[in-house]
């Protein structure tokens, strides 16, 4: 096996430049800026922005409260629908959700900055730990929540608010899931993900067991016998493979793991980064790892994606962000081979693709190559079968995900599921939060009936 390329090095940039590169991607609005932006809202009666929001936040309502300087009321309007409204204000693809639906976007090509306004309203609540929610009288019921990501935490908070006692089983050492481990560091600075977690737990009635994995440290059957209901928000713990020979080359890495290491690193410059980097994939993770590689000092970063820009999971805004950071995106290119020379430099062979007359993807036979010190895989995730084992065999599954109904109930009595692990999960924090909320309300109805 080839040794790693000598061009994989740490500290390519000095600390001051690293700190600048990983500062807040979007500066928060000042009061005057927020008032000016809020005044641009038409406060539409039918509110297409609210319809486009997966959690159904009353967007005109919270913006109207900003106009009247009722920041607490504005935050309450947001957080009662989306308890992770602070994180979503930072990472939600508003450009394809609420802001795309904004009436001003249709007429002026310049929508109201809903995401920034949402952050303006919610940041003071988290900064000051302002209490907005209280627990109802105890129901005497207990619920096990498996997974400490957005879906699990959303479900746990709503259940606790409704008076149920909740225990969260989390496989990681910290709560937050992808909010803590899987999002670009420049999108959530100053340890905001954990401050939001602390706020969610402050309602009380939620116990947490970290470093506890389903199928390893506990079993679904035991939870069903010990608790009145179970919610599964286990995410997708494993990554998809390229399906090529030599996929064990030292320079071939999992983008999710590297992003997690970067998020947890006290000194980001200490992480080794290749001089030349290739990222395979077209989603948000691909953009995040590509941009962060550039900001760590990589000289050349290429993204390769087998389809066109319209089919990429990453929004146009994210694609433009990559380009403005010096990343080159190659569309219509599928990985076809991997090899490494004696120096450890990887050559990735790429075959050009196109759509046939029926709209199916096909390879053209035309091949080109790129050299890289590191190749990152960012082609999606799947359930970790090795970890969960036979735990999910008792559930109806479809394409490797848990089948749920509209209330997020599974085929197994007393068990609900949501987030990325469930059929219909959209790989978005905001969608996972909605799943957790919907499931919590359904669990509450079931327990009280």
Summarize model confidence as the mean pLDDT: 95
CATH fold naming of the largest domain:
FAD/NAD(P)-binding domain
- Classified in CATH, the superfamily of the largest domain is FAD/NAD(P)-binding domain
Low-pLDDT parts are none
CATH architecture classification name of the largest domain? 3-Layer(bba) Sandwich
Highest-level CATH class of the largest domain: Alpha Beta
Beta-strand segment tally: 19
DSSP helix count? 18
Measured distance between first and last alpha carbons:
62 Å
Summarize the structure.
About 35% of the residues lie in helices and about 20% in strands. It is α/β, with parallel strands linked by helices and about 450 residues long.
Describe what this molecule looks like in 3D:
With 449 residues, this protein is α/β, with parallel strands linked by helices. It folds into three domains: 8-22 and 239-377, FAD/NAD(P)-binding domain; 40-128, Orthogonal Bundle (Fumarate Reductase Iron-sulfur Protein, Chain B, domain 2); 142-237 and 383-448, FAD/NAD(P)-binding domain (3-Layer(bba) Sandwich), CATH 3.50.50.60. Helices cover 35% and strands 19% of the residues. The chain has 18 helices and 19 strands. It has helices at 15-21, 31-38, 48-52, 59-67, 71-79, 85-91, 98-101, 103-108, 114-128, 150-161, 178-181, 192-201, 220-226, 255-264, 284-295, 316-324, 385-388, 429-448; strands spanning 8-9, 142-146, 165-169, 206-209, 229-232, 238-239, 252-254, 273-274, 276-280, 300-304, 327-330, 333-340, 346-355, 361-372, 374-377, 381-382, 397-398, 401-402, 415-417. The strands form six sheets. The chain has a five-stranded parallel sheet, sandwiched between helices. A five-stranded parallel sheet has the order 7-15-9-10-11. α10 (150-161) links the parallel β2 and β3 (165-169). The chain starts with 7 loop residues before the first strand and ends with a helix. The relative contact order is 0.15. The model has no long low-confidence stretch (mean pLDDT 95).
């Amino acid at each position: 096996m080839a040794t790693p390329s000598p061009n994989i090095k740490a500290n390519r940039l000095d600390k001051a430049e690293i700190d600048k590169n990983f500062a807040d991607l979007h500066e928060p609005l000042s009061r005057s800026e927020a008032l000016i932006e809020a005044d641009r809202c038409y406060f539409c009666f039918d509110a297409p922005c609210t319809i486009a929001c997966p959690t159904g936040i009353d967007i005109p309502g919270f913006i109207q409260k900003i106009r009247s300087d009722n920041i607490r009321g504005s935050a309450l309007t947001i957080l009662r629908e989306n308890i992770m409204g602070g994180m979503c204000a930072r990472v939600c693809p508003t450009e394809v959700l609420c802001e795309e639906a904004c009436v001003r976007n249709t007429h002026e090509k310049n929508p109201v900055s809903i995401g920034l306004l949402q952050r303006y309203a919610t940041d003071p609540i988290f900064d000051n730990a302002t209490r907005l929610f209280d627990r109802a009288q105890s129901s005497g019921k207990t619920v096990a929540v498996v997974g400490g990501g957005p879906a699990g935490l959303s479900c746990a908070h709503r259940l606790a608010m409704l008076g149920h006692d909740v225990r969260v089983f989390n496989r990681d050492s910290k709560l937050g899931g992808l909010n803590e481990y899987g999002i670009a560091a420049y999108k959530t600075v100053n340890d905001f993900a954990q401050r939001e977690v602390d706020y969610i737990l402050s309602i009380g009635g939620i116990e947490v067991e970290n470093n506890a994995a389903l199928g390893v440290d506990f079993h679904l059957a035991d939870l069903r016998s010990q608790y009145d209901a179970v919610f599964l928000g286990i995410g997708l713990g494993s990554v998809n493979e390229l399906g090529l020979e030599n996929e064990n080359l030292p320079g071939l890495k999992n983008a999710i793991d590297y992003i997690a290491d970067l998020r947890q690193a006290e000194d980001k410059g200490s992480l080794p980064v290749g001089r030349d980097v290739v990222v395979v994939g077209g989603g948000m993770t691909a953009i995040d790892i590509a941009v962060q590689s550039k900001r760590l000092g990589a000289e050349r970063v290429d993204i390769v994606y087998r389809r066109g820009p319209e089919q990429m999971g990453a929004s146009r805004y994210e694609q433009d962000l990559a380009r403005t950071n010096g990343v080159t995106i190659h569309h219509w290119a599928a990985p076809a081979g991997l090899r490494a020379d004696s120096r450890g430099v990887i050559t990735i062979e790429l075959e050009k693709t196109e759509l046939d007359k029926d709209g199916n993807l096909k390879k053209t036979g035309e091949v080109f190559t790129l050299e890289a010190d590191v190749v990152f895989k960012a082609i999606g995730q799947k359930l970790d079968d090795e970890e969960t084992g036979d735990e999910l065999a008792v559930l109806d599954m479809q394409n490797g995900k848990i089948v749920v109904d509209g209330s997020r109930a599974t085929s197994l009595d007393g068990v609900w599921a949501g987030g990325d692990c469930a059929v219909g999960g959209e790989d978005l924090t905001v969608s996972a939060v909605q799943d957790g909320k919907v499931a919590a309300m359904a669990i509450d109805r079931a327990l009280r009936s």
